[in-house]
Design a protein that fits this description.
alpha/beta; 2 domains; nine-stranded mixed β-sheet; 13 helices; elongated
Length: 375
């Protein structure tokens, strides 16, 4: 008898990231993302995971949602599919995800694999709670929850091991989400919604994002900001990513930065604020100057690209170049990784491989650390 794999794709997940919209929750935000030229990315990331399950194709029955919510992709890869129902017409919604997930639970799938972000994880939790094992393919803008694999490839690899029962154990993973409207206003309001059962193999899973800034390390963070400010080159563009650590750089320059967005600085002055991918590419093209990207790491997870700063698309990163990436983080943030490497998940596997290896992280006024980067 074939094992049943539940498979759900949120087709609009992540569309707001490159435009700097901090999410894609709500029809008005999705409309804005499309006006900014956003294109769906979730299918590409879901495909990268599902392809790794092809060795099990003859042993699996994929229980999935109609059309772009999973069926089209699964059938294109040759999987045998059973399609659950959703209400006809209109844009897919979180209610569709919940309805489909609940039916998959009733059908007794061995694992529910879903592509989306924290909002999709909330929908899955609302529908199934702890009824069955689930595994998230990271495809959203906000990926704070501890129910996602480290990358689409990691999701596929872990899914195969779990379905083969080579990694049978499950553990509880936190489902976190934030208020997107507050997020767009520069305020982080996060909430724990519950727990999902996920395969417990830390080699493949990302951990819960640790928020709250840098705790008691304010002086160290301020020193990092002053150091980078002093070392800034005249005539060079600085693309400053989101975060409290990068905010220290803007404060050292006496500039009002965008806490959760990307700002462009030239000659210690703010050239553009809260810009998306298209604007970054336009600035780089028009200015024809050397440029550097300044980013920090996500506490507890270690990502420097691909989580909350999708404005730094593969195209932007390639134009700036690996050697012009400045990573800043307090020692506390590095310690929160517990020896795990820094991570990149840009959506371009060749670029992720190029970015892997070792790089310098500025950790203080006169201190730096050499850290390993993986993908």
């Amino acid at each position: 008898m074939k094992k049943r794999l539940g498979f759900i794709v949120n087709p609009v997940a992540g569309m707001g990231g490159r435009g700097g919209l901090k999410g894609t929750d709500g029809a008005h935000v999705l409309k804005k993302a499309r006006e900014l030229g956003a294109v769906p990315l979730a299918h590409r990331r879901a495909a990268a995971a599902l392809r790794l399950l092809l060795p099990l194709k003859e042993e699996l029955e994929v229980v999935t949602c109609p059309g772009d919510m999973g069926e089209n992709l699964a059938r294109s890869l040759g999987f045998s599919c059973t399609v659950v129902k959703r209400e006809a017409g209109g844009e897919t919604t979180g209610a569709d995800t919940e309805r489909c997930a609940a039916e998959m639970a009733e059908l007794g799938v061995a694992l529910l694999l879903f592509a989306g972000g924290d909002g999709t994880a909330r929908n899955i939790y609302n529908a199934v709670g702890g009824a069955l094992p689930v595994l998230g393919i990271p495809a959203g803008v906000k990926i704070h929850s501890a129910v996602f694999a480290a990358s689409p490839a990691a999701a596929g690899a872990l899914g195969e091991l779990f379905l083969r029962e080579e990694t049978p154990d499950v553990a509880e993973g936190e489902v976190m989400d934030i208020d997107e409207e507050a997020f767009r206003e520069g305020r982080v309001s996060a909430r724990l919604y519950g727990y999902l059962r996920v395969p417990s193999d830390r080699r493949f899973m990302q951990t819960l994002k640790i928020g709250g800034g840098d705790g008691g390390e304010e002086e160290a963070v301020a020193a990092i900001g002053h150091r980078v400010a002093e070392e800034m080159e005249e005539g060079c563009l600085y693309l400053v990513g989101p975060g409290t650590t990068t905010r220290a750089l803007m404060e050292a320059l006496g500039l009002q930065g965008t806490l959760l967005g990307v700002d462009v600085v030239l000659n210690r002055q703010l050239l553009a604020a809260d810009v998306g991918e298209a604007q970054l590419l336009e600035v780089l093209r028009e200015q024809q100057r050397d440029a550097k990207i300044v980013v920090t790491i996500i506490g507890g997870q270690g990502y420097i690209f691909g989580r909350g700063n999708q404005q730094f698309s593969p195209e932007v990163i390639k134009k700036v170049g690996k050697d012009n990436i400045i990573v800043i983080a307090s020692r506390g943030k590095l310690l929160s990784l517990r020896g795990e490497p820094l991570r990149v998940d840009t959506g371009d596997q060749d670029l992720d491989q190029t970015l892997s290896g070792y790089l310098k992280v500025i950790t203080g006024e006169k201190e730096s650390s050499i850290c390993r980067v993986s993908y």
